[in-house]
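As a warm-up, study this chain.
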Amino acid sequence: MANDFDSILITGASSGLGEALAIAAASPGKHLWLTGRNASRLDTVAQACRVKGAAVTASVIDVMDRTAMTQFVEQADDERPLDLVIANAGISGGTGGGGESDGQAREIFDINLTGVLNTIHPAIDRMRPRRRGQVAVMSSLAALRGFPGAPAYSASKAAVKIYAEALRGALAGDGVGVSAICPGFVKSRMTDVNDFPMPFLMDADKAAEIILRGLRRNRTVIAFPLPMYLAVSFLSLLPPALAVRLLRRLPAKS
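Now compare it with the structure written out below.
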């Protein structure tokens, strides 16, 4: 039987996939708890969700602020116990006019990994005693095979994917579901800076529908689109030396 989520928290909701997820999840009777770092964009998303009938609490929070994230999650759960938490906030490489510098690589790991932990663990602490609830982490198809154009991004997404898969087993007996979301290229502010071909580029609205459908079914891994998933999975099966030679031919962010 599919899960129904009435109280949902989403980070990184001020644009891109987070925005699309919030709007797709909004409907009468739902309460959405949204965070983002851009106040004006976050307010626009919140208003769009309210138009669809949802109650919305939006707050400008950096997911790296562990105290602020804990307080926000606990505030939400106190008001209406959380059914679903989506740790969506993240960044990619190559957005500062070049590839992944040392500083950018460290920032990518901090936000994409530590930011996820700061989001899901306060929620898990609340969900375990009542033996229900679900958390989801935003990974990527890049988690299946490291891409030379985005080493830190690939590795950070691999880390949260493996962590989610292991955590799912660890929490299975506590009634808490855990899902890893692994999209391919999704149209967003993050991918708008890419000046190379992006196979099977998908609109954020369609991606959000796929993700929410997978979460309602409590799937362990939600990977899409299928052709891209199969292609990257095939690369992951190749001998490492051959895979590296092939991947080095792919264009990098300029």
